[in-house]
Amino acid sequence: MSLKRQLFLASLLMLLIPWAGLKFVLELDDALRQQALQQLQERGQRMANLAGDLLLGQPTIATPNALYASPAETPIKPDGHADDWPGYDEPDHLQPWQPAEPLPVPGAPHLRWQAASDGRHLFLLVQMQNQAMQLFQQNRPDQPHDRFELVLQPPITDLQQPVPRQRWTLRTSAPGSVNAIREDRQQTPDYRVQGAWRDRGAGWQLELQMPQPARGSLLGFQVTLGGQESSVPGTGIEPLPPLVQRIPELERALADQLGDGQQVTVVEPAGWIVAHHRHPATGQGPDFDDLSPVQVLEKITLNALRALIRLYQPEPTPLAETGHRLITGGLPDNHLVRRNDGSVWLATEHDLFGGRSLVLEQSLDQLLTVSGSALGSVLARSLLIILALTLVLLGYASWLSWRIARLQRLVSASVDEDGRILSPVPSARTRDELGQLQQHFSQMVERLQSYNHYLESFSRRLSHELKTPVAVVRSSLENLAHNSSEQERQQYLERAAGATERLRRILNSMSEAARLEQSFDQADKEQFDLSEVVAQATAAYQQLDADHQIRYQIPEAECPLMGSPEMLVQMLDKLVDNARDFTPEGGAIEVSLRRHSDHYQLRVFNEGSQLPEHAGVDIFGAFVSQRQGQSEGHLGQGLLIVRLIADYHGGYVEARNTREGGIDGVSFRVIIPVYRPETGSTL
């Protein structure tokens, strides 16, 4: 089957895009939730550590009976009307009331209250239901009347001295403004505690303002109804409940750590919220009136997808929450929770000290927007895309077939039937996979050509090296047979023995690398100072070679190493011998040893001729030499031995052309891991 037909059949499979899109979005939604959960857990742990540090020294609140003060977002004027309190415009059941009785008896007197704070003042809004207001008669003070008693216990100071309680009493002879009477100061008026008392027909309402108590204070109040001369059930001042407030500095610190569509809540052991902040989601789209018809279709599709995806999602667990308390009761395994407003969140809970906890939540609407938008765009435009892609794929198949046939012709023309390289494959202009394939073919042909050249040069070098000693042995034996003089016969024998020794050295050189690899199994590693070994070897090079300038840079500290110092000296001998062969007379050879945090760098630099840019053959391979007609006996084994010794010590060797101080040359670097004597291991 041709490539065109295969791509045509493949294009028909795009009809599965709508079905695959739905499966993809469902998997994407699950993956996004798992990823978001992991990120939430990591971020929540960091925020829990931060919150724990900021809450050090703050008393924990484990009692469900407390007076909770919400933050006042707008200024509150204590005029008794309560129209400036947070949530005043909300339905009554959504307002943050604290009831005296969780389940009041219908028709019976019922007390509820709110508290708010603006940082300077504390505001109380107390509301009595199903009980008419009884005023205080100044000329008849003994007559029954409604009375409001307020008690404040400041926190204990650093000196651990008890602080006396502060008591106020409020009563009024007519609806309107009212001032408090300080009971603990001989019934003197306290104008710092003031407010307004309003008659509501079937009840009354008291709005009160007082100076902001210190954090950790206890604050309670008691309402006495005049007709009954008894306190309202559920209220009281013994024991005094704690005053719970938001901690602004904690909220500001946590707000900086939140991402888009996230909210964080810090709760006391009894569930009282001491910090809460929500970061709204960003990237909202344009208004509905500004949408195009296509965008309207996508919006409709997105809303349908949200409902569809939620059908496949696990059922979220409702949270027990009010405006001032949050009781998680342990999050479910799927970490999905539902708030009172119907929103669904991905939540993680992190324990703090003292029974406190931090709850970090991520809105699922933002995750659904990402996944739903992806599928909405696919479903709305998939049919048009299928037709367009079918035509594009057919045209692309034709172009692709032409390129493959062209590459086949180029490769066939570069090699003859006998395997000889006739011409290189030209480099590709494109950067796609076929272009890379053509580039690899070009490099492969170039390397094969270089390797053929390497085999031919090795054969010539070996023939050249063996030709002279074989000729000497042959001529010596022939002359030996035709001479009777003992002195001449001895000379020919010595010449034959010298040529035989040269043959032995050549053969030993060819097997030197193999013997070295066998010696690795029997070699014993020992600890030694690499800098001392290199310094001694370099000093010997300087004494034995007067034709070159051999310099050495030694590190200041010791360089401990576990290995074989003899092998490292042998490796350095090969590198320096190689450098001497390519360095002109009087040229510089630099040997340096540097210690880095995790490795040693042994470097040999020589000025002179440089390595070919495209050698085609690894210079650290067997029987590889860049010498052209140079001194005898070089079969390309030296750098192979260098690589083997570097590998034995856990390192590697590399070579590159470089320019230092205006001088061109070649740099060989051997990288060996640092040895730690205290741990007995290398890095």
TrEMBL record:
InterPro entries: HAMP_dom (IPR003660), HATPase_C_sf (IPR036890), HATPase_dom (IPR003594), His_kinase_dom (IPR005467), HisK_dim/P_dom (IPR003661), HisK_dim/P_sf (IPR036097), TCS_sensor_his_kinase (IPR050428). Residues 398-453 form the HAMP domain. It is found in: Membrane. The keyword Cell inner membrane does not apply. Residues 461-676 form the Histidine kinase domain. It is an enzyme of class 2 (transferase). The chain crosses the membrane at residues 378-399. Its EC number is 2.7.13.3. GO terms for molecular function: ATP binding. It comes from Marinobacter alkaliphilus. This is histidine kinase. It catalyses: ATP + protein L-histidine = ADP + protein N-phospho-L-histidine. Keywords: ATP-binding, Kinase, Membrane, Nucleotide-binding, Phosphoprotein, Transferase, Transmembrane, Transmembrane helix, Two-component regulatory system.
